[in-house]
């Protein structure tokens, strides 16, 4: 009887040959030799092995059906059907991809599911199974991560279509005072999602400036004397700067006039001086004060001396005029104010 003293591996030694000699006990001893050939029977004793412990693949969003994502490969040391492999994939995202059962090539199956803004990665499990008879098959799994790469398929969107702002005409220029900030968002990544802002039209005289990066609106020139309502059209565009990926909005700015100048006394010329009025029976008129920048002014008597002359104040053109009427009083001190 011939017995093996070590494990025999069909894949390493499918055939074993050796000689067997026999010797009798006679005198003289006689011998005989025979050559033995042993054919090793193959069994499915090896698991498939993938070339990598895990696979990381990538595909661009919106790729059409049939786009090659990547390949997984495994080998099986067994011979024959025991060493021939079939590939399958499972997992939550397996319906979006398909794998070639013979080559392990993974391709896109559901293009609409490749939206990076909705899901940036897809997780699969690839399985390699040998083709041994059912019940004898061996298989191995490997994780597959598929990263969905971004495409510039979204445009910026303003948070509002119309922005409203109010600014005083004396808003600072150096450094500039912020009037308001507009904002647009773009779900794309990188330069495709980097929003830039610009004024499109109606910025007469360049009196406004829109920061391209922050979206903050500043005065572009002095606003003094430019009170009123202004409407400017603005644009948000992604950093790639081309194509239809942009959005438009309008800013309505109200520049408010500011009371910056005091009214001026014409008479008396000096502060806290006395106005001398001739003592006459008939009334006289004299210019007394003028407002700043054509505003209305009010007049307040701070002290009055009883006399026979009455004082009447009224407007004549751009000036305030003092009229005297006999038999009343005369002002020795007065204050004049804007009526804003």
From TrEMBL:
Transmembrane segments: none
This protein's record includes keyword Transport: no
Keyword terms, alphabetized: Calcium, Membrane, Repeat, Transmembrane, Transmembrane helix
Matches recorded under CDD domains: Cadherin_repeat
GO cellular component labels: plasma membrane
Domain Cadherin: 8-50, 51-158, 159-265
GO-annotated molecular function: calcium ion binding
The keyword RNA-binding appears for this protein: no
Pfam families, sorted: Cadherin (PF00028)
Localization: Membrane
Any single biological process term in GO: homophilic cell adhesion via plasma membrane adhesion molecules
PANTHER family, per database record: FAT ATYPICAL CADHERIN-RELATED, PROTOCADHERIN FAT 4
The protein's name in its UniProt record: Cadherin domain-containing protein
């Amino acid at each position: 009887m011939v017995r093996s003293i070590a494990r025999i591996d069909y894949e390493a030694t499918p055939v074993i040959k050796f000689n067997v000699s026999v010797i009798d006990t006679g005198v003289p001893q006689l011998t005989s030799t025979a050559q033995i050939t042993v054919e090793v029977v193959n069994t499915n004793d090896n698991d498939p092995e993938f070339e990598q412990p895990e696979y990381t693949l990538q595909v661009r969003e919106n790729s059409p059906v049939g786009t090659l994502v990547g390949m997984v490969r495994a080998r099986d040391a067994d011979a024959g059907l025991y060493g021939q492999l079939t590939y399958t994939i499972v997992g939550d995202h397996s319906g979006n991809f398909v794998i070639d059962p013979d080559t392990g090539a993974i391709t896109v199956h559901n293009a609409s599911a490749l939206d990076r803004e909705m899901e940036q990665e897809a997780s699969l499990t690839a399985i390699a199974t040998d083709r041994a008879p059912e019940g004898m098959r061996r298989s191995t799994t490997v994780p597959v991560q598929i990263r969905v790469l971004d495409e510039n398929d979204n445009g910026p969107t303003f948070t509002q279509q119309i922005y409203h702002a109010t600014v005083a005409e004396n808003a600072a220029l150096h450094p500039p005072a912020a009037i308001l900030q507009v904002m647009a968002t773009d779900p794309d990544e990188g330069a495709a999602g980097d929003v830039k802002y610009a004024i499109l039209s109606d910025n007469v005289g360049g009196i406004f400036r829109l920061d391209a990066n922050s979206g903050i609106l500043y005065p572009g020139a002095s606003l003094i004397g430019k009170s009123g309502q202004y409407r400017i059209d603005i644009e948000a565009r992604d950093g790639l700067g081309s194509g239809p990926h942009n959005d438009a909005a309008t800013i309505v700015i109200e520049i408010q006039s500011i009371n910056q100048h005091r009214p001026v006394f014409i008479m008396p010329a000096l502060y806290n001086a006395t106005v001398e009025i001739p003592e006459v029976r008939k009334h006289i008129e004299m210019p007394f004060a003028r407002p700043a920048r054509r505003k209305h002014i009010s007049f307040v008597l701070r002290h009055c001396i009883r006399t026979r002359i009455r004082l009447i104040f009224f407007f004549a053109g751009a000036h305030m005029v003092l009229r005297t009427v006999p038999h009343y009083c005369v002002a020795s001190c007065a204050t004049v104010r804007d009526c804003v």
